[in-house]
Amino acid sequence: MGWADICTWSTKRLSRVEATPSLSRRRAVRRAALAWASGLLLGFVLACQATIWLEPATPELAVVEQLALQLSACAMLSAMLALLLRRWLRLAASLALAATLAAPTVNQAIDAGGAPGLSGATTLKVLSVNLWHIAPRRAATVAALIDSSADVIGLVEMTAEWRRSLQPVIDRYPYRVDCFAQEPDCETMLLSNWPIERPIAGRIWKSNPIVAGGDILWQDRRLTILVTHLTRPLVRKEESRWYDAAAADPADYLEASVPFNRQATQAGRLARFLNGQAPDLVLLGDMNAVPWSRVQRAFRARTGLDNRAGWAATWPAQLPWPLRLPLDHVLARGRAVVSGFAAGTRIDSDHLPVLAEIGWRE
Question: CA nearest 186: which of 214, 169, 162, 220?
């Protein structure tokens, strides 16, 4: 080996020695960044879970419970980072959080074909649609409603423009209930292939929410079907023009700890109204609340309505499934049973439509 070879070998060796600490430092920096991100994510999810457990009355804090499914996904991401970093305690905490957050979102679904006590194989097809009052287009919605072959359609956020666009759909249904003649801001309509008796349309006790529907005479059975639309959970109750601080709060009718928002007030008023209706009842519409929220749980407990057939993530329709919330519902009580439930395909709305099958049990 000559002198030149020795010099070349020494230079390469020195380069490798100098590169090793640099590479180690980069790996250490990446590992530290992952550990920091994992800890931050875990801390955020833990804070949200603690907020849910504390059941705050403030609407801005209470809205966290609506995001339980998304927070559970964040906890799973934290678990994967902890596994990558071999942080076993952090992994266990993340998995525990993911499980506790996901648990309330799991419904006890019933098999539509095997629900006990259902009489006959015929079901009533009910479609619930939030039209979106600022929808830029309408053709896809009109086509979807025509193709749905639904027996009953409930519509909310129906503007004057929507009424004109949906005239071909309205003409296909011989029976209709709405409150546009009495309420310029009605935005609510029920269409039916079956006769409607004792129609109901308008504000509940001259306040919100608005309902539309009546008694559907279906195969010699009398079934009350109503469509409604509750307000968003972030709106405080004192922001309503019907709010009266000295009057009894309709939310107290729910007999539960619910957020101090207008949605709880509307849900309490609606629950009291529904409990004065016939026992065999179906309620559909945009509730602006997930099934596991305190308002929805208290509302179902007070009215006897249930959603055991499941739920579907419907809003915002523009986002993929993991980021959507199940805000549109079809609930039933009495001899009426929701034996099937699913979201429809994308239309011109920020909500996906939901289609339910209603069975009858003796």
Answer: 162
Residue 14: predicted pLDDT: 43
Nearest-5° angle of CA 312, CA 313, CA 315? Answer: 135
Classify residue 192 by its DSSP letter. E
Cα–Cα nearest to 213, from 169, 231, 202: 202
Contact call for residues 299 and 99 (beta carbons, < 8 A):
no
Convert the pLDDT of each residue in 270-322 to its tens digit: 999 999 999 999 999 999 999 999 999 999 999 999 887 888 999 999 998 88
| DSSP 3-state of 344 | coil
The residues, ordered by sequence, that sit 6+ positions from 130 with a Cβ below 8 Å of its Cβ are: 156, 157, 229, 285, 286, 315, 328, 349, 350, 351, 353
Length of the chain: 362
> What CA–CA distance (Å, rounded) separates 258 from 181?
34
Confidence at residue 85, expressed as pLDDT on a 0 to 100 scale? 86
Spans in the chain with pLDDT lower than 50: 6-7, 9-10, 14, 17-19, 108-114
- What's phi and psi for 278, nearest 5 deg? -65, 150
Q: How many CB atoms lie within 10 A of CB 323?
A: 14
The one-letter amino acid code at 25 reads R
Domain boundaries, the chain: 3-105, 124-360
Does the domain made of 124-360 have the CATH classification 2.40.30.10?
no
Q: Give dist(CA 200, CA 233) in Å, integer.
A: 26
Helix intervals (H) in the chain: 3-54, 59-62, 68-85, 88-102, 139-147, 160-165, 167-170, 262-274, 294-303
